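ugh ok so i messed up the first submission bc i forgot one of the chains. this is the corrected input, ALL of the components this time, i swear. 803 residues overall. if the numbers dont match what u have on ur side tell me asap before i send this to the collaborators (the ones from the other lab, u know who)
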Amino acid sequence: MRTCTDIAGAVPERTPRSRRRADGWARATGVRSAIRGLRLLVAVLTGITPAFAHEIRPGYLELREEPANRYQVLWKVPTAAAALGEELAESLGQTSRPITEAALANRREPCGCPSLWARPRSPLTVSIHPVFPPEVRPLAPPVVRHETDAELWTWPVQAPGDGLAGAEITVHGLQASTMDVLVRIVFRDGQVATRLLTPTAPVLVVEATRRTGAGGYLRLGVAHILLGVDHLLFVLGLLLIVPDRWMLLKTVTAFTLAHSLTLAVATLGYAAAPLEPLNAAIALSILFLGPEVVRFRRGETSFTLRHPWVVAFAFGLLHGFGFASGLSTLGLPAGEIPLALLLFNLGVEAGQVGFVLLVLALGTSFRVLEVRWPRMVQALPGFAVGSLGAFWFVQRTALMVMGWSR
Amino acid sequence: MNSRGGAHRTRQRPAPVRFVVSVLATLAFPVLARAHLVNSGLGPFYDGVTHLALSPDELLGIVGLALLAGLGGAAFGRMALFTLPLAWLAGGLLGMTGRITVNLPTATGLALIVIGTLVALDRQVPFAIRPVIVGGFGLVEGLQNGAVAATGALPAGGLLGIAATAFVLVALVAAGAVAIGKQPPWTRIVARVAGSWIAAIGLLMTGWALR
Amino acid sequence: MAVCFAPFAAHAHVEGDMAGGLVAGLWHPVSGLDHVLAMVAVGLWGAQLGKPAVWSLPVAFPLVMAIGAFLGLVGMGLPGVEIGIAASALVLGAMVLTEARPPLWLATTIVGAFAIFHGHAHGTELPEDASGLLYSIGFVTATGCLHGCGIALGLVHRWPAGRVLLRVAGGLVALGGCYFLRGALV
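and heres the new structure output, hopefully the right one now
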């Protein structure tokens, strides 16, 4: 197995964190213990729902050829899980201690490579990192920058004289994860190679002739909707409150139009939504549908039940920002965005249409087979929509509040 | 003169056929590359879905059972709809303990023969035998999946994905068969031909395993 | 069709085998002209015979053929396979040529007997290294499709000119059978 000493050769620089200052504020106002309790609660809540904790935002690896054969590497990995893991460790009284270089040199990643990280990482963290062949030498230690939802690593590497062609780039730890990593190589002549690495295919061999791997964006879109249980649950909620086919078509079209609109607006950079309040709002949109489903089943009526497409459009705008998070964390360069946006959106729609058709076909099948569900089971989809929406809303709001308290 | 030697034939393939064959092989390849691990990249549930989608023998068995149940009427269809996934899941959990193992190529082959023949004959299946066939098939396949899960090649959550896919598949196919059953009798022939193909495939599989 | 089968191809464990097994299975029934003629003739005859036969033949044929293949696979010998296959084209062609209308049981027995010969030939000549499951699927599918082709062609039976055409086709199949029979005997 190839080791990754090439980028772990030196200790990464630490960025100043605002945490220490925030801690002082918390102690002064006397809310520290409350926040600790909240953190613990959230950590536990998140811990017991590992199925929903799948990281669906992809990682991003960019190699940009600056002078010939020298590449600037950008490695961007989402850190929601990392931050949370630290909360858990801290609330349990295990504050992070300063680490000596010697201790750092001894720590190992799960794959056996020397650890790249300057601070202790919790077990909840997705530990993935790129590995280059030995002939691609690092020229400087990585510089690490922390963003709210991602960690950015940058360092320059020197490719051998005959270029990068034939080089094998691997992402260690990907196989054990449910994440995808988009790899993008920008050559000096302006050519661009894009490939999506997946848990099944974590290795990339740089080709002499380059093509843009457009299929990768499509796959990202499909994966995003298939793993986005919250989006699917919202669509299910809509399906449960439409009275007929025509209204169904209108509602689903309205939802699609709305989320495509905001997905485009957000990806093109005209608007942005902060991730944490957005996630809470999406959860709220699902929670909102729960009572409507119950109302629909009781034969009552409401504005939503008379005009489900209006609600679908309004909340669709929110969900579009959510979809955009699957693309925007990549930090795509401007030239690539229109194609990526189109394909990603098509992927999302393909997944959504598949889901809607499956639900409808199942409904028809149950009717043909004359399945008579007990009352409890009949109410189940509505309750699932409502209670999961409520659960996620509490969970995500708590996460958001914790974020503020830092 | 034996004009049917395999290698002899291969050389004789005319150009258009060779083209079709190569197109087929090319199309098959992206999928082949992923078949080594039962890993969809989308977590355990989808791993199970993928596992089933890549197991034609298990799929044929489910489709055959659903056809049999659907042709037998809505009641039989309902029974299969719930019995098969539950039996599958139970078999999977049993199989994970490693206490019971099944020699699958023959077991699935024999199951396909029985199921396919019953569909091809298109006779009412006695009430007492129905749950035995449906539950038996689910148990046998589940045991095998469970054994795979025990080796770690398939995550335990994958069993849920498999059972859920089986549920969906039975619902769709059985409903289709019930609808066919209400049409003029000659449309049933479609289902019967499918049954005969399934039984034939089962026979060949069994022969292959025994040779 | 290719798209439909691509997922199946992924099942087996050695890559070369996978596509190979399916393709080999699809290929084998259509690879010998004697096979193809006999299969199509069954379809044509079924179409001529009309309702009960055209229903029961496609159901019974793959099963009986698989029984023959099973015998071949487990190594049970069947004398005169090549002769039987050649004779099948001759006899079935002759049936179509003369528009023979034996009782259903007799027609089914004739077709079934020949089906065993055909299946046995396929069963003994399987490639050693292919994936059994995929080979079986390809094999049964190709046989069924050949059959379907025969029945579809036989639909011209509705028109008077079509009837003549069918009989001519039957004659050609019978001629082909003669040629293969000569090859098998000499």
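quick check: Chains C and A do not touch (no CB pair under 8 Å). that seems consistent at least. Residues 1-17 of chain C have pLDDT under 50 and may be disordered.
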